[in-house]
Specification:
Number of strands: 11
Number of domains: 2
Radius of gyration: 19 Å
Structural class: alpha/beta
CATH class of the largest domain: Alpha Beta
Shape: globular
CATH superfamily of the largest domain: HAD superfamily/HAD-like
Distance between the termini: 9 Å
Largest sheet: 7 strands, mixed
CATH topology of the largest domain: Rossmann fold
Amino acid sequence: MENKITLQKQITDAIASANSVRHFAVFDFDNTCIANDIAEATLNHMARGALFRDPTIVPGPEQNEPQALAKTIFQHYYRLLKAGDVLGAYEFGAKTLSGLNILEIERLVRDVIESEGAMIGQSELFGAKIAKGLATRPSVIELISDLQKQGVEIWIVSASPRLLVAEAMKNFGIVAKLIGVRHVIKNGIITSELEYPLSVMGGKVDCIKLFIDRTARPLLGVGDSGNDLPMLEYSSIKAVVDRQNSLSEKAKASGWALL
């Protein structure tokens, strides 16, 4: 409660003292606005159902057997994450949608959210432990609502594919402007080609400058992991969803708000 009151005062004071009439705040999406990750949940769902369409995204020879392809894609993504290649993992994760029709995304995300359920826990796939469940974080949703009442523009800046996050936001009733990883789409089909800059790590700041404002800094930045650190450091006020990780520790040491 003390953190919340302090954060609210910081925001009110910043709005009152700012010269600009336009104020905007930037929020990460996965593990910030919601618990767990819509892109990973989608990848897991597609792997479980062998729903991938494009075997050429996997390093090495093409695999035409759906189950083998699903396992290879699943394991390659999590291998990149385990190796600390966050940018490579998110880039590859976005490419797993290649070959899908954009009209299929709405149904796919709806199926993912329904199959995941709102209970946060763990599951297992191909012998690996994976996160299960997708649910909004009430404290963050409340903060978004409070900011909107004060006339602050809300932007979601996500490292997940824009197509997935947009549908997830609709399903969860989150109203905001959105920046996410963008696919090149040809004749209604999602390709493995991505548009740059990617809204991942330092690319989040690049995208803020490109799509929101080239010179003004966000009034507030909210995130949950080191992937969000460049965006938070670029923001005037910083708030962190406390997942008891290295970013939480930095927030405590720096006097940032913990949600």
